[in-house]
Amino acid sequence: MTQHDDVTRMHHMLDHAREAVAMLSSTTPEDLKRARMLQLALVRLVEIVGEAATRVSDGGQMRYPSIPWQKARGMRNRLVHGYDQIDLRVLWDTITDDLPPLIAELERILEAA
To answer: Which of 36, 81, 89, 108 is labelled catalytic?
Structure first.
């Protein structure tokens, strides 16, 4: 994979992480429990963040160790393979706690790219 491909994948991660955070910005955990379409949309956005992370080359991942590559891939795998056991609290915490610092770091990296 070329550097350009890695940058594209990191842009995908950034765009989808931003969208997930924005979707939750005016909701509560209780809202999420009641809104099936929101649940499905958020699961998909977080899956894409993880899938894009898996497509960043090994060299790209080594170049940017501040990105939690393994966690992003792991969350994607949990959502895809454990589709029938998704814990909405974990999804909520991932989006509200883990994605904002990821967004900030991706913005920093991509600004310099």
So the answer is: 81
Asked if 51 and 78 count as a contact pair (C-beta separation under 8 A), the reply is no
Single out the residue of 88, 93, 94, 91 nearest to residue 33, CA to CA.
88
Q: What is the pTM of this model?
A: 0.94
CB-based contact 23:112 (threshold 8 Å): no
**pLDDT string in tens for the chain (113-residue length):** 556 799 999 999 999 999 999 999 999 999 999 999 999 999 999 999 999 999 999 999 999 999 999 999 999 999 999 999 999 999 999 999 999 999 999 999 999 98
Measure CA of the first residue to CA of the last residue in the chain; give whole Å. Answer: 16
Catalytic residue among 16, 76, 78, 89: 76
Active site residue 55: no
DSSP H helical ranges for the chain: 3-24, 29-34, 36-55, 58-63, 69-81, 88-93, 99-112
Q: Tell me if residue 4 is catalytic.
A: no
